[in-house]
Amino acid sequence: MAKEKDLSTRVVPSLGGVSTEKSIWDMGWDELVQGAACFSFEKEIDHTVVNTQPENRQYAETNSMNKYVGDWRIIKPVWNVDLCIDCQNCWLYCPDTSIISRDKEMVGIDYDHCKGCGICVQVCPTNPKSLLMFSETVKNEEALTQWPSKDKSLPDNNEKGE
Amino acid sequence: MYKNKRTMELKKVEVWDGNLANSHALRQASVDVVAAYPITPSTGTVEGYANHHANGYVDGEFVMVESEHAAMSGCIGASAAGARAATATSSQGLALMIETLYQASGMRMPIVLCMINRALAAPLNVNGDHSDMYLANQSGWISMDACTPEESYDLVLCAFRIAEHKSVRLPVIVNQDGFLTSHKAQNVRPLSDEQAYNFVGDYQEVNSLLNFDKPVTHGVQTESDWHFEHKAKQHNAMMGSVKIIEEVFEEYAKLSGRKYNLIESYLVEDADVVLVCLGTTYQTAQMAADKLRAEGKKVGVVLPRVFRPTQLDTFAKLLKNAKAVVCMDRSAPGGQTGLIYNDVAAALFNTSARPLLSNVIYGLGGRDINIENLKGIFNHALEEVANGKLDGSIQRFVGVRGPELKYYNVEA
Q: What is the pairing mode between strands B172-177 and B142-145?
């Protein structure tokens, strides 16, 4: 699962991009953009950027993709790849685009931006769920050993669709 | 963005009240979005504008929102998107809007707010004093003061130029007295739609949300990392706006023949007693000064046309020869001296001028102040000059029923 590790540990943009601009951390009041406006990209974009995956986009330093807000979270969703049917519900409903999916296949969770709201767990249709909330203090590997078994009183939604 | 397609033929002299004058200035500036909520006495500005809109004279959007908080929020959204935006309010409306005022100035949105000054409750009162103007004191808005409908018309047109100037990009409030100016029809010599629009000019977008070639986020969170720097930058722009305001006033004078100054003054050069006041009191005080001058008494009057940013150096220059300066504050002082007093004291403290400096609280909630009242205030200060000291206290209430109210004793 090298693919998972690459993307879910930290999806930080400016990957490979070397900024020619001065870092916002080195700017005085006279150099900052007025009104604290933050540009997503350093330069004007050509609109084909929508066809580029986030990890390959040349985001500006001030893009929120570069801001770590994982410490806002006290509980986290843990993904169980063995149960996941790639239905994309979690990807669709996540309010922080923190579910990473490529070619309609779940890849992992962006823990840098996930706030731990739990919506992904709520919308997960499998039995048992493929996403469950755990305390931040529990390691993912450990969480996977604590997974509940199938609830026989509930319907089975474990069919992978198209 | 674009000029209204339909123009209105105006007479050389129109008879407009302050609200109608505002509505025409907004119409001529071809504002893209006016988001507003009615409140007495500013309703007429919005109503007049809605009327122009309904009659096809306004091509921009008029948005009737659910509160003043929403009105300013709508203006901020429109402005961030890249539109010219304006609104109007008074008193409680301004109070409800206050949070968004700080958002607008912090986000550097060049919005124009037509403020019709009215007392803040409680007790409830629709009449005029300057407590709403004072409430916006540190909101980061440039604040200018008009005494007549014509002045308000002029200043609203100037406000767009000042606010939208690339080195300013700050919102501007244009104040006028509730009812005394807003509802009193007077002669206004308007510019033609063509002249007015050409003066205001096309809106220049800066970092607009609708520029899809350069996506941008407005209203960001900075925490302690950048907040101080942005506030410093904002204050610096505010202080730098003084030069731009002067340039815009200069240009407007060439167009209209009407010259505005950072601080207006009347007969101050040789005056022993100078009265500093805001709004229509400036006009009444000039009439009182004329009467006293006829009696050989040297008195003058000063109006901070630009209330914020505060004009310390201009105050200092104008007041350097005065023997007494009476600072007139038409707002409940809330346990301190009034803002005019604070401004003038700050202006003079580091100069060699040491006039007797007093603070008169007057006209709260629209309590009338007439020529005789003002003559009395001048004469009181002239007596203080003759005695070489203040009459016991720095602050006194004038025109209130009941026992005399005086505070900040200077005898001790």
A: parallel
How close B395 gets to chain A, by Cα (Å)? 39
What is the pLDDT at residue A54? 84
Q: Do B226 and A32 touch (CB under 8 A)?
A: yes
Least Cα distance to B94 among B42, B21, B18, B34 occurs for B42
Do B326 and B258 contact (CB within 8 A), yes or no?
no
Tens of pLDDT along A104-136? 999 999 999 999 999 999 999 999 999 999 999
* Residue entry with tokens 């730098």: B240
Helical residues (DSSP H) of B257-321, grouped into ranges: 281-294, 312-319
Report how far apart, in Å, the C-alpha atoms of A111 and of each of A76, A97, A100, A136 are. Answer: 8, 11, 10, 11
Which residues from chain A sit within 8 angstroms of residue B111, using beta carbons? none
Give the residue on B whose Cα is nearest the Cα of A47: B213
Contacts of B108 in chain A (CB under 8 A): 34-35
- Residue A49's pLDDT is 86
- Per CB-CB distance under 8 Å, the chain A contacts of B220 are 36-38
Q: Using alpha carbons only, what angle is made at residue B93 by residues B221 and B329, rounded to the nearest 5 degrees?
A: 100
Quote the mean pLDDT of chain B: 97
| Residues B189/B284, Cβ–Cβ less than 8 Å | no
B326-335 b/e (C-beta count within 10 Å ≥ 16 → b)? bbbbbbbbee
C-alpha closest to that of B209 among B77, B379, B109: B77
Model pLDDT for residues A32-66, shown as the tens digit of each residue: 999 999 999 988 998 888 898 888 888 999 898 88
CA distance B57 to B53: 6
Query: Span B62-67, mean pLDDT?
Result: 96
Q: Which of A41-45, B60-64, B386-390, B391-395 has the lowest mean pLDDT?
A: A41-45
Q: Decide: residue A144, CB within 10 A, 0-12 exposed, 13-18 middle, 19+ buried.
A: middle
